[in-house]
Structure to design on (79 residues):
Protein backbone atom coordinates (compact mmCIF):
# COMPACT_ATOMS: atom_id res chain seq x y z
CA UNK A 1 0.00 0.00 0.00
CA UNK A 2 2.78 2.43 0.89
CA UNK A 3 4.49 1.97 -2.48
CA UNK A 4 1.19 2.65 -4.25
CA UNK A 5 0.62 5.77 -2.19
CA UNK A 6 4.14 7.02 -2.98
CA UNK A 7 3.30 6.91 -6.67
CA UNK A 8 5.81 4.28 -7.73
CA UNK A 9 4.85 3.49 -11.35
CA UNK A 10 6.49 0.03 -11.42
CA UNK A 11 6.33 -2.53 -8.63
CA UNK A 12 7.62 -6.09 -8.33
CA UNK A 13 6.30 -8.31 -5.56
CA UNK A 14 8.91 -10.99 -4.91
CA UNK A 15 8.09 -14.27 -3.17
CA UNK A 16 10.92 -16.50 -2.01
CA UNK A 17 10.78 -20.30 -1.87
CA UNK A 18 9.63 -20.30 1.73
CA UNK A 19 6.73 -17.89 1.11
CA UNK A 20 3.32 -19.09 2.16
CA UNK A 21 0.01 -17.44 1.33
CA UNK A 22 -3.35 -18.40 2.81
CA UNK A 23 -6.83 -17.39 1.65
CA UNK A 24 -6.70 -14.07 3.49
CA UNK A 25 -3.34 -13.30 1.89
CA UNK A 26 -4.71 -14.06 -1.56
CA UNK A 27 -7.66 -11.73 -0.89
CA UNK A 28 -5.30 -8.94 0.21
CA UNK A 29 -3.04 -9.52 -2.80
CA UNK A 30 -6.03 -9.37 -5.14
CA UNK A 31 -7.20 -6.09 -3.56
CA UNK A 32 -3.69 -4.65 -3.90
CA UNK A 33 -3.49 -5.64 -7.56
CA UNK A 34 -6.89 -4.13 -8.32
CA UNK A 35 -5.98 -0.93 -6.48
CA UNK A 36 -2.69 -0.69 -8.36
CA UNK A 37 -4.46 -1.14 -11.67
CA UNK A 38 -6.98 1.58 -10.76
CA UNK A 39 -4.08 3.94 -9.97
CA UNK A 40 -2.34 3.16 -13.27
CA UNK A 41 0.56 1.31 -11.65
CA UNK A 42 2.29 -1.58 -13.39
CA UNK A 43 3.01 -4.63 -11.26
CA UNK A 44 4.65 -7.99 -11.67
CA UNK A 45 5.20 -10.92 -9.33
CA UNK A 46 8.41 -12.92 -9.18
CA UNK A 47 9.77 -15.98 -7.42
CA UNK A 48 6.48 -17.82 -7.01
CA UNK A 49 6.79 -21.58 -6.55
CA UNK A 50 5.12 -23.91 -9.04
CA UNK A 51 2.42 -24.76 -6.49
CA UNK A 52 1.57 -21.11 -5.94
CA UNK A 53 1.59 -20.47 -9.70
CA UNK A 54 -1.19 -23.03 -9.98
CA UNK A 55 -3.11 -21.48 -7.08
CA UNK A 56 -2.70 -17.98 -8.55
CA UNK A 57 -4.02 -19.27 -11.89
CA UNK A 58 -7.02 -20.95 -10.25
CA UNK A 59 -8.03 -17.86 -8.24
CA UNK A 60 -7.51 -15.50 -11.19
CA UNK A 61 -4.47 -13.53 -10.03
CA UNK A 62 -2.72 -14.29 -13.32
CA UNK A 63 -5.46 -12.31 -15.08
CA UNK A 64 -4.34 -9.24 -13.11
CA UNK A 65 -0.55 -9.62 -13.15
CA UNK A 66 2.22 -11.53 -14.90
CA UNK A 67 4.29 -14.05 -12.96
CA UNK A 68 8.06 -14.21 -13.52
CA UNK A 69 10.87 -16.44 -12.33
CA UNK A 70 13.12 -13.59 -11.18
CA UNK A 71 13.00 -9.93 -10.18
CA UNK A 72 15.26 -9.10 -13.13
CA UNK A 73 12.88 -10.78 -15.57
CA UNK A 74 9.92 -8.95 -14.03
CA UNK A 75 11.66 -5.56 -14.21
CA UNK A 76 12.67 -6.14 -17.82
CA UNK A 77 9.06 -6.97 -18.70
CA UNK A 78 7.73 -3.86 -16.95
CA UNK A 79 10.10 -1.54 -18.83
Amino acid sequence: DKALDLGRPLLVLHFDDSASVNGAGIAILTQLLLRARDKGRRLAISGVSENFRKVFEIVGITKLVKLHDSVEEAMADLH
